[in-house]
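Data deposition worksheet. Section B asks for the primary sequence of the deposited chain exactly as it was used as input, without tags or linkers unless they were present during the calculation. Section C holds the resulting structure in token form. Section D is free text for depositor observations; keep each observation to a single sentence. Incomplete worksheets are returned to the depositor.
Section A, Depositor: J.P.
Section B:
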Amino acid sequence: MLVIDLTQPLIALLCIASIICAIFLGHEIKRAVVPAVALVLCIALLLVHTFQLFIFGVNYIEYQNILSISMIYDFGFILITYLSYLWIDDIEAKYKNKKNIDNSLEWFWSKIV
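Section C:
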């Protein structure tokens, strides 16, 4: 069975680079759909790792550690892509002069500043 091993540095760097490219592309074209696609792919990767963890069971102990660490990376990727989606959605709303229903990142920026 194919395991996407995020504990290997090259694979982790490729995932980070693709997420950064999606965020940059979404910012440049001012479309929130690009980081939304990256968010869906990160969630799908988390689900794949979760299912593989349950399928392998106790027979493959070496895969349990790899999948557990990969799931931690997946949660980090989901956090990054979700916050970037909210940010680019706000940029898209300002660019198209749409009224934003709620200022989704206001809670985030008020805690930082």
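Section D:
The helical segments are 9-29, 33-56, 61-95, 106-112.
The chain has a mean pLDDT of 87.
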